[in-house]
Specification:
There is one protein chain. The chain is built from five helices and eight strands. By secondary structure, it is of the alpha+beta class. A hairpin with a 6-residue loop joins strand 6 and strand 7.
Length: 194
């Protein structure tokens, strides 16, 4: 039977931090808009900041639906499901905000991701303030074995300067504007703080 929690306690934090992948869901307000679900999982790109706040690094390589939806309405759900160990699913429903590279909070927030220090392709930091924290059984989630991290993203964007990455973002469809025409990432992409 699932439970709700008023905070991300030590046990939940440990569970969240031990998962290799998580999923992010957002949607625009319009009834005909596109619902978005994105897998995330680059090692070291997620941090539990406190008992009510989770953050993750947003990287280039795809559109910016999550950012656009957060700019419009702030609704977001993060979900982790155990592919090994006890069959558990944890969800954090909350209010999200995209913190862009020129935001004065960037230098302090990015310190929460030491494993990704200087990693190429960083576009934003997504901050999530929990409104509802819950778990449920994961009895139907299959057992899967983790092998290793993929290096393709880091390898590809590691060959680009920050200026080349910014140009890449400007050329990519649905980075400055979402599928539904909502403002997404600011373009030209702000430079990383020195």
């Amino acid at each position: 039977m699932g439970k709700t929690y008023d905070r991300i306690d030590g046990r939940l934090r440990g569970y969240i931090e031990n998962q290799k992948v998580f999923f992010v869901a957002t949607a625009p307000l319009g009834a005909d808009g596109h619902v978005n679900v994105s897998p995330k999982g680059l090692a070291g790109s997620l941090a539990v900041l406190d008992e009510q706040t989770v953050a993750y690094l947003d990287f280039g390589g795809s559109g910016a639906e999550t950012v656009a939806h957060l700019r419009e309405n702030g609704r977001i759900t993060l979900m982790w499901c155990a592919f090994d160990g006890p069959p558990t699913i944890v969800r954090v429903h909350g209010r999200g905000e995209a913190v862009f590279r020129d935001d004065p909070r960037w230098p302090e927030l990015v310190r929460h991701f030491p494993q990704q220090d200087g990693a190429p392709g960083q576009r934003a930091i997504i901050l999530v303030s929990a409104r509802r924290i819950s778990d449920s059984c994961g009895y139907s989630v299959p057992l899967l074995d983790y092998r290793e991290e993929r290096t393709l993203h880091t390898d590809y964007f590691g060959r680009k300067t920050d200026e080349e990455f910014a140009a890449y973002c400007e050329r990519k469809d649905h980075v400055g504007t979402s599928l539904d025409g909502l403002p997404a990432l600011p373009l030209p992409l702000p430079s990383l703080p020195a």
